[in-house]
Amino acid sequence: MRGSRMTVTNALILINIAVFLLEEMAGGSMKSSVAIRFGAQLTSAVTVQHQWWRLFTAMFVHFGAMHILSNMISLYLLGRSAEQVLGPGRMLTLYLVSGIVGNLCTVLLDLHAGKDTLSAGASGAIFGLMGLYVAMALLPRFRPMVSVRNILIMLALNAAYGIQNRSVNMTAHTGGLAAGTVLSLFFLSAIGG
Question: Is 167 a catalytic residue?
């Protein structure tokens, strides 16, 4: 049934919205102290205090209504399609692995640059879902299902917005996209690409 194929996307959206509402009730999602309490990624907390779980929990914490709204719209659109192509289990794996890799890339770059960045949001994982379309464009069997032009436009627009807006974690986006592309190539090859 069509509805049963969307359960992972819907569940992820509900979890993100629930965490956001809890953040708001706890003092406001725009407050750094609230974000940290709910699992946002702070490089020093991950590396010095060994709170590696933040690489996972940060994917479900958002800063403000526009942050969660834009991410949940993207997750709805990309997640549904990814579930149709990969199935729910592979889509969930793609989403979580991409988000964790994106967050890990942020930590590694911070360590190299001597920074202590506070970051959160689902966009690293969502960029991993975008990686599925990049992978599809690279594989002849799946290429007719995607528009390479649209993929390039989408990536260029996101890159331009990220360069213009300093609050965007481009490292998490790039890490998530790279992880999502590589993992998607593996998954698509396994299902006959």
Answer: no
